[in-house]
Amino acid sequence: MTIAPESPMNLPAPMPAEGNLRLAAAIVEAGLTYAELAEQLQVDPKTVERWVNEPGRRPYARHAHAVARVLGTTVWDLWPAMRPKELTPQAPSVVSVPPILLAAARDALSRVENLDLGTASPTAMAMHLGSLSAALRTVLDLVDVSGVAG
Q1: Alpha helices in the chain (DSSP H)
Q2: How confident is residue 83, by pLDDT bands cut at 50, 70 and 90?
Q3: Pairwise CA distance, residues 83 & 89, whole Å
Q4: Is 70 exposed, middle or buried (0-12, 13-18, 19+ CB in 10 A)?
Q5: What is the DSSP-derived secondary structure letter of residue 12?
Q6: CA geometry: angle at 43 spanning 76 and 26, to 5°?
Q7: Model pLDDT for residues 32-62, shown as the tens digit of each residue
Q8: 48, 41 contact by CB (below 8 A)
Q9: With left for phi above 0 and alpha for psi between -120 and 50, is residue 56 left, alpha or beta?
Q10: Prediction pTM value
């Protein structure tokens, strides 16, 4: 029995200094070598090495999906730049709310939270709920205008 000499393709996948660290980590976690992954994908081992080591190098979509399936992850976890724009999480927008509106909303909320429902008259409850409703409507209108609400 002869043992093949060790080559970079037969050794466990090394972590690259630059390139696709996510892909490299997923290969290591799966316990595969570049050659083993390449064999499962029916591509050249050098191709897998390029995907890992060359910054910005991405496979064709069919190969990217096959890699993700073999490694038990998603294409977007391995190549975030491949995520369609409409699926990319966006940071929420910050809406500037005038201090007077914040004070009115806090006051209305405080009055409703401190309302004793057992002793309050129907008129008092209606007034408190009306002021809270107006404050919430104003805040929501501000958010809708700014394009944050959807």
Answers
A1: 21-29, 34-41, 45-53, 61-71, 75-78, 99-113, 122-146
A2: confident
A3: 10
A4: middle
A5: B
A6: 35
A7: 999 999 999 999 999 999 999 988 888 888 8
A8: yes
A9: left
A10: 0.48
Q: What is the dihedral of CA 4, 7, 12, 13, to 10 degrees?
A: -150
List of residues 6+ apart from 25 with CB closer than 8 A: 15
Distance between CA atoms of 14 and 9, rounded to whole angstroms?
A: 10
Cβ-in-10-Å burial (0-12, 13-18, 19+) of 61 comes to: exposed
Q: Which of 89, 91, 93, 69 is nearest to 80 (CA)?
A: 89
- pLDDT, residue 3, reads 43
